[in-house]
């Protein structure tokens, strides 16, 4: 029917598979169990990607007690057993069996959301059907048809017919002979019009009370008269079902514009309705015409996108109703739509109504006023007042001095004289007009129904269930979120007292047992998960087993003997940690101090001491695997222990030329490592080195490694005299930094010693020494050494260097074919193996390089050496290596990597790793070879859990973006952000794997991922984003209150415009990040609008900017300064002179504005030299008053200084080898797939006749 009526919310995947009511685990990620039921104590249904329409209908059927109990009454003799499903000789009716199991799971299993995977499998649906979009009204008919076909030949063959079947009779009466032609039509649901109709009662009136006349040129051929005659056509309800389903025709087609549209006007429907005026006159009791509303399926969105959820009345009181926060606030009553109703000129309406009510013996249904003829009125009321729907109730309410209405406003009576307030009681009504449903919903009706004192309403929105109030139903009368299907039940149907609050009522015993087993398994899983999540491992370093060397802690014996591992709940306090340590270290005596430490290349260093006994480990930020030093708080081995970041030890490489050697030849340096605290001044460093090297302090010269002057040299810069008072930290000396120590007296004759005002380079000759480190582990002889220096030349083969290294390292000759040489970068990482059939120069190896001799083979010319990491947390995962042929496909490479990593299953895919060490673009083309994708040796891949999005779909990370300076209502903004933060905490949303930028005034919060078709529109994307768990409870009236940005380097760069434009037009990639910004007013940007954020002028003497405002202007105003100037002048009322400064680039554009208009050509601010983009900050100031003010802030100064430091660090970088590739990764994207044609919804049913 309508193929794309909604977009789905991204529900949590942690749902117990309904295949396993017996307790099997399925679909868990890292042992995360399904969440338990919420405060409402009712279970939702997980969305499979496009099944919100199915979820809403299933919840309605579940809370139809008569349908649920009739389904449960069908036993194995009727339906068979699921264990025999694969047996071709058995007649297993899978659909009703799976529906039984799903209902039992929803009623009894303690989980937030149940899965419909097995039910949809029984329908014959695949993943395509589960993600396709269908209409719930169409599903209602198809599902009932499938159930009828499945129950043929069973005791429940008439289940649907008994509960939902009704009949309509169409009559045509000949005005000449009186012959009546009848035709009866059966129905399971009634479809009523919404267009040009204001209420359900009016729609039913037009269908079953109004008559259509055949006259003039439109005559009817009477079968009795055998000629064309005048006739009247009418329809009546002949047979009423126990449950009346009403479908509202909200979607129509505009034949003029040739497009669909949704009727969003106000359309009311009652909570209780009397169908007697629309039925044939029969012998039914009056109570059988009365129906009460118990379910409303709601569609949110437009005709091209949206979402379904359902309001349901909990008749059996299975859930726990509680008032929402917003329900506790006093809501003012709605004003009447009209103060009075203008009636056509006729007799006094009050007099006429008084006569009508008096004739009906005290009471009269309000709906019956339009049918009752009076002698003084010659026509029916509806003929005169057909254009005033609902006029009766409005008129009666406006005349309280004459009429009084019942509590439900369905009945009216004359007000007795002398009575100020009076509510009619049922026993005062006439027997012909008895209305047992008019009492309030919370009143009891008989002893059998005494427990059902009050039935409340709940909102079932896929996996979320929330209580609502009855008045909230009125909010669904109109708008983008409005009622789509209505479900009524006869008021005379009463529930037994045993069903009240009893979810297991009439549930089969085998399903009760399976639900009990599932609950036990879920409880076990939650206990395991709680233990895994909250328990953390701590490494306790016992102080009495440590000693102080060079101001750093070192174990007395071995590291293993000095460390004790302790597992503790992160929610424990410091006092509880201390008690646990005391219990573990039973030998400890005296005071105990706990300090957080960290392992450094120099040794163990104390960071800070845990003093607040009531703080939890979680609040203190102590991570899993932290090092805790246990000591007495005073000394270790009689020495004071330095603590804090200011005295953190730094391990320096001290280089000293050998005796008689030229200091410029680095091959002849002695190297050793010395530890100094960061706060040590250079004067103390010189004194310490003078004692250890034997060089007199007066002639000792310290040099720091500076920028390299060429590829074969290192530059040294001597420290100045005034530098001796500065610390090691001031010169950014870190672990591994090199310091050259020279004796000025011994080297002065050679010249070239670095002086205070310059730097001298040390040149390497064509012959050099390469350091080879042994990484062969246990496969070496006893005489093997850790490292050796090999003298080599540029023309020497790598294989010869390897052979010489094996000889000097005293390694076994058998290792020659099972080892390889790998270059080491300055961080100690092993790079890909070096080819052995080339020279050192051809391998691009410097003669001062450090190589590692490692186990493994050397890749051939047709093989690739690849790194790979498992999982999404790349920082915490260890990097592994694999060698594959360059001709293998991505699919084959994935299998090889899975075998290497010990991974099983099909839910894995490969991604590239970008230069930021983050997961990049996915390798979507599974049959393409690695060579065709330009993957080279040394490239890094990421194997990530989860299947790739289907072809034509995008998986977009979504962030919430808010700039504090852009909001003119910071309190509103802070409330929204606090609400989102609380929601993320409740959902256990973590941003530890997402890099959040540290930008002043910019806040980004990771909300989750959205999977959506590339053919969907921008409006569909915003609608689906609002269904993310962290955003669902935000008060956003429509998608016009959201602004979507494209993020580049975690900064907003471009606004997505035009809600009807498809996402494929924006050229979004699979790794494109989207940011959503909350707005306080509607915004619908067209393609001709440009956005700039203006910053007001700075205050006098202030270094902070005033809050900014958003300003929009069309291209018709001009893309240059003229357009900006006109907009600024209108905004700030600057009528003389002002200056516009692009704060982002500090480029000035000055424009003078006077009262006299001058025509001149202006350059575009989007072009050179300004290149302004959307979201750039533009400063505005009055040159006459504020010319001396500057737009830069202290944050700008800090940012500029950081940029300078980063540039200096890049210049000083000595990284020798970079990852190389023959060409950049391909940017080609698969062509966007065109929208698939809509496929009719179907359910496959076996043959049981």
From TrEMBL:
InterPro entries: Papain-like_cys_pep_sf, Peptidase_C19, Peptidase_C19_UCH, UBL_USP40, USP, USP_CS. Pfam families: UBL_USP40, UCH. GO terms for molecular function: cysteine-type deubiquitinase activity. SUPFAM superfamilies: Cysteine proteinases. GO terms for cellular component: cytosol; nucleus. Residues 416-442, 1217-1238 are annotated as: Disordered. One of its GO terms (biological process) is pronephric glomerulus development. Residues 43-491 form the USP domain. This is Ubiquitin specific peptidase 40. It comes from Latimeria chalumnae. The lineage of its organism: Eukaryota, Metazoa, Chordata, Craniata, Vertebrata. The gene is USP40.
């Amino acid at each position: 029917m309508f193929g794309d009526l909604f977009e789905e919310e991204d529900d949590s995947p942690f749902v117990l598979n309904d295949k396993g009511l017996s307790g099997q685990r399925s679909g868990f990620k890292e042992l995360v169990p399904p969440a338990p039921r919420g405060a409402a104590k009712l279970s939702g249904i997980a969305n499979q990607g496009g099944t919100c329409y199915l979820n809403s209908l299933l919840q309605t059927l579940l809370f139809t007690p008569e349908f649920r109990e009739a389904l449960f009454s069908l036993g194995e003799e009727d339906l068979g057993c699921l264990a025999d499903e694969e047996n071709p000789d058995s007649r297993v009716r899978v659909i009703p069996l799976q529906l039984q199991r799903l209902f039992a799971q929803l009623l009894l299993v303690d989980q937030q959301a149940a899965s419909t995977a097995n039910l949809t499998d029984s329908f014959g649906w695949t993943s395509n059907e589960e993600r396709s979009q269908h209409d719930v009204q169409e599903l209602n008919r198809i599902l009932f048809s499938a159930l009828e076909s499945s129950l043929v030949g069973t005791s429940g063959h008439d289940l649907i017919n008994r509960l939902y079947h009704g009949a309509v009779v169409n009559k045509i009466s000949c005005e000449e002979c009186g012959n009546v032609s009848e035709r009866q039509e059966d129905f399971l649901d009634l479809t009523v019009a919404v267009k040009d109709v204001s209420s359900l009662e009016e729609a039913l009136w037009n269908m079953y009370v109004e008559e259509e006349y055949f006259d003039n040129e439109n005559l009817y051929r009477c079968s009795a008269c055998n000629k064309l005659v005048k006739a009247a056509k009418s329809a009546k309800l002949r047979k009423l079902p126990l449950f009346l389903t009403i479908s509202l025709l909200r979607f129509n087609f505009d034949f003029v514009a040739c497009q669909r549209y949704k009727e969003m006007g106000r359309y009311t429907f009652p909570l209780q309705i009397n169908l007697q005026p629309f039925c044939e006159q029969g012998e039914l009791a009056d109570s059988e015409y009365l129906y009460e509303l118990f379910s409303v399926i709601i569609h949110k969105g437009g005709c091209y996108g949206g979402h379904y959820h359902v309001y349901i009345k909990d008749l059996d009181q299975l859930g726990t109703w509680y008032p929402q926060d917003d329900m506790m606030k006093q809501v003012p009553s709605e004003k009447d739509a009209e103060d009075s109703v203008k009636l056509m000129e006729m007799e006094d309406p009050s007099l006429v109504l008084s006569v009508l009510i008096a004739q009906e013996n005290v009471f009269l249904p309000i709906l019956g006023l339009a049918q009752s003829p009076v002698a003084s009125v010659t026509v029916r009321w509806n003929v005169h007042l057909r254009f005033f729907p609902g006029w009766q109730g409005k008129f009666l309410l406006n005349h309280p001095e004459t009429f009084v209405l019942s509590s439900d406003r369905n009945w009216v009576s004359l007000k007795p004289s002398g009575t100020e307030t009076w509510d009619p009681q049922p026993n005062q009504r006439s027997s012909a007009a008895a209305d047992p449903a008019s009492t309030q919903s919370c009143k009891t009706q008989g002893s059998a129904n005494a427990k059902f004192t009050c039935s409340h309403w709940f909102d079932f929105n896929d996996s979320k269930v929330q209580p609502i109030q009855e008045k909230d139903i009125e909010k669904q009368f109109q708008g983008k979120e409005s009622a789509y299907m209505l479900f009524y039940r006869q008021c005379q149907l009463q529930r037994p007292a045993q069903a009240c609050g009893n979810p297991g009522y009439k549930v089969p015993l085998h399903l009760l047992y399976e639900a009990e087993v599932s609950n036990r398994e879920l409880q076990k899983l939650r206990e395991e998960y709680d233990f895994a999540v909250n328990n953390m491992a701590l490494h306790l370093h016992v102080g009495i087993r440590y000693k102080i060397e060079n101001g750093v802690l070192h174990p007395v014996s071995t590291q293993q003997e000095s460390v004790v591992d302790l597992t503790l709940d992160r929610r424990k306090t410091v006092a509880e940690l201390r008690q646990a340590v005391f219990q573990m270290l039973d030998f400890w005596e005296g005071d105990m101090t706990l300090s957080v430490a960290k392992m450094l290349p120099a040794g163990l260093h104390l960071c800070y001491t845990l003093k607040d006994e009531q703080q939890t480990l979680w609040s203190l930020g102590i991570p899993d695997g932290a090092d805790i030093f246990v000591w007495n708080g005073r000394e270790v081995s009689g020495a004071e222990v330095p603590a804090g970041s200011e005295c953190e030890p730094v391990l320096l490489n001290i280089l000293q030329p050998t005796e008689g050697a030229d200091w410029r030849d680095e091959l002849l340096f002695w190297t050793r490592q010395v530890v100094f605290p960061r706060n040590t001044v250079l004067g103390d460093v010189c004194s310490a080195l003078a004692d250890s090297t034997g060089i007199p302090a007066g002639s000792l010269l310290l040099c720091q490694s500076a920028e390299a002057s060429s590829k074969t040299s290192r530059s040294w810069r001597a420290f100045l005299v005034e530098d001796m008072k500065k610390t090691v930290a001031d010169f950014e000396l870190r672990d591994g930094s090199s310091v050259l120590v020279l004796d000025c007296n011994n080297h002065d004759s050679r010249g070239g010693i670095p002086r205070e005002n310059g730097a001298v380079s040390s040149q390497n000759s064509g012959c050099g020494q390469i350091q080879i480190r042994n990484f062969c582990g246990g496969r070496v002889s006893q005489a093997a050494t850790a490292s050796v220096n090999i003298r080599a030349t540029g023309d020497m083969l790598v294989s010869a260097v390897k052979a010489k290294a094996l000889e000097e390292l005293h390694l076994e000759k058998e290792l020659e074919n099972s080892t390889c040489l790998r270059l080491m970068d300055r961080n100690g990482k092993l790079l890909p193996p070096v080819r052995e059939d080339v020279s050192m120069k051809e391998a691009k190896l410097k003669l001062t390089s450090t190589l590692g001799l490692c186990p493994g083979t050397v890749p051939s010319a047709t093989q690739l050496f690849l790194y790979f990491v498992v999982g999404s947390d790349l920082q915490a995962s260890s990097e592994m290596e694999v060698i594959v042929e360059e001709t293998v496909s991505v699919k084959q490479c994935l299998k090889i990597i899975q075998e290497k990593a010990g991974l099983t299953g099909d839910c894995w895919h490969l991604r590239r790793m970008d230069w930021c060490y983050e997961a990049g673009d996915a390798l979507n083309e599974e049959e393409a070879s690695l060579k065709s994708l330009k993957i080279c040796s040394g490239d890094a891949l990421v194997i990530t859990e989860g299947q790739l999005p289907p072809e034509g779909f995008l998986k977009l990370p979504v962030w919430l973006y808010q700039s504090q300076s852009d909001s003119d209502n910071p309190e509103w903004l802070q409330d929204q952000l606090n609400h989102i933060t609380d929601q993320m905490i409740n959902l256990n949303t973590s941003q530890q794997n997402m890099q959040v930028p540290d930008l002043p005034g910019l806040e980004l919060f990771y909300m989750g991922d959205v999977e959506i078709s590339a053919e969907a529109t921008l409006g569909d994307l915003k609608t689906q984003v609002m269904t993310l768990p962290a955003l669902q409870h935000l008060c956003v009236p429509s998608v016009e209150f959201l602004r979507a940005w494209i993020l580049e380097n975690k900064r907003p760069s471009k606004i997505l415009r035009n809600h009807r434009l498809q996402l494929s037009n924006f050229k979004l990639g699979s790794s494109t990040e989207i940011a959503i910004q909350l707005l306080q007013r509607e915004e619908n940007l067209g393609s001709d609008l440009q956005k700039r954020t203006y910053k007001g002028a700075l205050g006098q003497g202030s270094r902070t900017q005033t809050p900014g405002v958003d300003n929009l202007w069309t291209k018709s105003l001009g893309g240059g300064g003229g357009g900006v100037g006109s907009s600024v002048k209108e905004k700030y009322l600057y009528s003389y002179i002002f200056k516009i400064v692009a704060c982002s680039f500090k480029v000035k554009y000055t424009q003078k504005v006077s009262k006299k208009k001058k025509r001149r050509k202006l350059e575009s601010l989007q072009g050179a030299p300004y290149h302004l983009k959307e979201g750039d900050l533009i400063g505005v100031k009055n040159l006459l008053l504020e010319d001396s003010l500057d737009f830069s802030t202290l944050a700008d100064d800090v940012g500029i200084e950081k940029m300078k430091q980063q540039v200096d660090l890049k210049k000083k970088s000595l990284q020798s080898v970079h990852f190389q590739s023959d060409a950049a990764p391909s940017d080609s994207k698969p062509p966007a797939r065109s929208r698939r044609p809509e496929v009719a919804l179907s359910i496959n049913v076996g043959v049981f006749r």
